[in-house]
Specification:
With 635 residues, the chain is of the alpha/beta class. It folds into 5 domains: 158 residues, 3-Layer(aba) Sandwich (Molybdenum Cofactor Biosythetic Enzyme, Chain A), CATH 3.40.980; 60 residues, Molybdopterin biosynthesis moea protein, domain 2; 74 residues, Beta Complex (Molybdopterin biosynthesis moeA protein, domain 3), CATH 2.170.190; 124 residues, MoeA, C-terminal, domain IV (Beta-clip); 171 residues, Periplasmic binding protein-like II (D-Maltodextrin-Binding Protein, domain 2, 3-Layer(aba) Sandwich), CATH 3.40.190. Helix content is 26%, strand content 28%. It contains 18 helices and 39 strands. Strands 29, 30, 31, 34, 35, 36, 37, 38 and 39 form a 9-stranded mixed β-sheet that branches. A hairpin with a 2-residue loop joins strand 20 and strand 21. Helix 1 packs across helix 6.
Length: 635
């Protein structure tokens, strides 16, 4: 039976309810202190010995009796007899009995007869490390519920603690479920999904201090799900089952937990992460995570991380927050707390943030994200240019050097981002695929450092400048060539529909996959339609849009489209055929201030580097003949 959500609680209320119902019993173990880094102490630890355990010299020099040196001055140097008035001593050596000060060797002149001459008196206990200066026997070294750092281990060993009682990491079972799930290394067939969620969940749990284990995959079968849950409950402290938590007719997680134990909550008022299940079986916490990756990871963070940190008695870490200016409007739905992944760049003296794809299944949105925008449930979102606080995934000092590219997608930008990072670890390049016209607009609003554009104006027989001049009134702009690239039809292997011209596409009636409005490829396609005397409604699929060349190729490869307009490397990536159509110019638009900046220098160095150019041209369909050249308007 299809299960409708039992609840739609706000996230923090759901967490409070969950933590009030479950508790993890503490288990301890003794391990060698030298192996206890990042482990959490079970009890307070006190020193067994003092460190140092004797009065020791803090300097190389001579040990003296301070009172015997009081008459020394530069007008009346004092001569000290060896053994009787002084002893040679090195740093760390025990202070000889009867002596109470050390004079540095640099302040002593040794005569040929062995006497030591000084010109300044010593004060009692100067340059001496007293017993217990570092650690005193019986002193508290670290409290209980303390995560051990490198310096803590040193203090413990200095205090004679060679073995320490620590909290055992709570054992967490991860049960991947779903008949469609396969091992990542298995051959992928239509309808199969590689289980990468388990590895991500495992890694997060390990990072938080738990002891996770990925169990065998369980198909969509109620009996086998119940059996897997019971086996895990007998062995582990916490059980996480991934997928099957939604309201589909094959989502059995809720029923299995409810039958074997108790469900506290099914459904959280968040996006993503809504279909989360919180419950227990035999007094042990059970968490049903959604199958969509972003939902799963966020739900794991919201409900499992607090449970683990509470077990260790540690404060829950909070991400650094930073005020930023929104580059685009971000809308939301009332009644739902929404978590939007964002890219952030420092442009013209302010931090600009733009939203990434918001789908719960888009893992790459987390990979590319610099931070997280949390939209409260009582808000409809935020307007462009509004100041908001962002939770940072990366340190703020890294974001000062995060370059933002907008506009048309091209694979060269991905290569450029890699080369930039290799050249300077502080530099990074994030791309927002807005289409060429969206890129021009972003430059005009100072919301990007550079924009990829490839817009041809047949009336002026020129690329990009005619559109830039129509859209922007700014004068301090620079247009730099990146490459020339071949656009063509991306079609299935063998080109079964024999698509060579746009007329063939219209006559055959095959499904087409288009680019989004404002994309240079979309504008080129519309130009081809006009030249052929065709209208958009003669192209089946004209209204269906994708945002990158790779997405177009992926649609053709999946069989949901029979043709798309794009570039050769995208076709090659999916082993598709490519029918060349026209070479176009792809430029980078930027402000003059960025063009002249230190951050831009490595970009120009890379794109004019013969080794980089060869790498680009080896992808096929590219010419780097004018890379780095300033492009002027045609008169």
């Amino acid at each position: 039976m299809r299960k409708i959500y039992l609840s739609n609680l706000p996230r923090l209320e759901a967490l409070k309810k969950f933590l009030a119902e479950v508790e993890l019993p503490h288990h301890t173990e003794n391990i060698a202190t030298g192996k206890a880094l990042d482990r959490v102490t079970a009890e307070a630890v006190f020193a067994r010995y003092s460190m140092p355990g004797y009065h020791a010299a803090a300097m190389d020099g001579i040990a003296v009796v301070a009172e015997q040196t009081f008459s020394a001055s530069d007008q009346s140097p004092l001569q000290l007899e060896p053994e009787h008035n002084y002893r040679n001593i090195n740093t760390g050596e025990p202070l000889p009995s009867g002596f109470d000060a050390v004079i540095k060797v640099e302040e002593v002149h040794f005569n040929t007869d062995g006497k030591a001459e000084i010109i300044a008196p010593a004060t009692p206990w100067q340059h001496i490390r007293a017993v217990g200066e570092d650690v005193v026997a019986g002193e508290l070294i670290v409290p209980g519920r303390h995560r051990l750092r490198p310096q803590d281990l040193g203090a413990l060993l200095a205090g004679g603690i060679t073995e320490i009682e620590i909290l055992q990491a709570p054992r967490v079972a991860i049960i991947p479920s779903g008949s469609e799930i396969i091992d990542p290394g298995e051959e992928r067939k239509k309808g199969s999904i590689p289980d990468f969620n388990s590895t991500v969940i495992f890694s997060y749990l390990k990072q938080w201090g738990a002891d996770p284990e990925i169990k065998s995959r369980v198909p969509d079968d109620p009996d086998r799900i119940r059996k897997a849950l019971l086996e895990a409950i007998n062995e582990f402290d916490v059980v996480i089952i991934n997928a099957g938590s939604s309201a589909g007719d094959k989502d059995y997680t809720f029923a299995a937990i409810e039958e074997l134990g108790e469900v506290f909550l099914h459904g959280v008022a968040t996006r993503p992460g809504k279909p989360t299940i919180l419950g227990q079986i035999r007094k042990k916490p059970v968490i049903g995570l959604p199958g969509y990756p972003v939902s799963a990871y966020m739900s794991l963070e919201w409900f499992t991380r607090p449970l683990i940190y509470r077990y260790f008695g540690l404060p829950l870490p909070e991400r650094q927050k930073m005020p930023v200016t929104l580059g685009r409007r971000v809308v939301s739905e009332l009644g739902v707390e929404e978590f939007v992944r964002m890219t952030i760049g420092y442009i013209d003296g302010r931090f600009i943030a733009n939203p990434l794809t918001r789908g719960a299944g888009v893992t790459m949105s987390l990979v590319r994200a610099d931070g997280l925008l949390v939209i409260p449930a009582n808000s409809l979102g935020y307007e462009q240019d509004q100041m908001v606080d962002i939770e940072l995934y990366r340190p703020d000092y890294e974001l000062n050097h995060n370059l933002m590219a907008a506009g048309s997608h091209d694979l060269i930008l991905d290569l450029l981002a890699t080369s930039l990072k290799e050249r300077d670890p502080y530099l990074s390049l994030s791309s927002a695929h807005l289409g060429s016209m969206g890129g021009i607009a972003a430059i005009g609003k100072r919301q990007a450092h550079l924009a990829g554009v490839h817009l041809f104006d047949p009336d002026k027989n020129d690329y990009n400048w005619p559109y830039i001049d129509k859209m922007l009134t700014l004068k301090d702009l620079r247009l730099v060539n990146l490459a020339y690239r071949m656009q063509g039809w991306i079609v299935p292997t063998g080109n079964p529909d024999n698509i060579k011209t746009i007329d063939d596409l219209a006559k055959s009636g095959v499904s087409f996959i288009n680019r989004q409005k404002g994309a240079g490829t979309r504008i080129l396609f519309d130009h081809l339609l006009r030249e052929a005397g065709l209208s958009p409604d003669q192209i089946y699929g004209y209204e269906r849009e994708e945002f990158t060349h790779l997405n177009v190729a992926a649609s053709v490869a999946a069989g949901t489209a029979r043709a798309g307009l794009g570039i050769l490397p995208a076709a090659k990536a999916f082993d598709l055929d490519f029918v060349p159509l026209a070479e176009e110019r792809y430029d980078l638009l930027m402000s003059n201030s960025f063009y002249s900046s230190k951050e831009a220098e490595p970009i120009f160095e890379i794109i004019t580097d013969p080794a980089f150019q060869k790498k680009v041209e080896d992808m096929g369909g590219y010419s780097m003949r004018d890379a780095g050249k300033l492009m002027s308007r045609k008169e």
